[in-house]
Design brief:
The chain has 68 residues and is mostly helical. The protein is 43% helix and 9% strand.
């Protein structure tokens, strides 16, 4: 009885992991990001390196908006 219950719990946890993520990357994550997007001063979220791999654009996002 205990082993059947254990298998059912493991199966339910495994099936729950296959669902779609509730978070979307194309939407702003904070009110400040939304404010920047509406004003047109937002920085790109990703950039491509010399090999064509997508990476987070840390340098443009961390520079102050008046220096962009």
């Amino acid at each position: 009885m205990r082993s059947v219950l254990g298998v059912l719990i493991l199966l339910s946890l495994g099936l729950g992991a296959c669902t779609k993520s509730p978070f979307y990357n194309e939407y702003p994550r904070t009110p400040y990001e939304r404010y920047q997007m509406l004003r047109g001063t937002d920085a790109p979220r990703y950039e491509y390196d010399t090999y064509g791999n997508r990476q987070p654009a840390l340098r443009p996002r961390l520079t102050p908006p008046d220096r962009r």
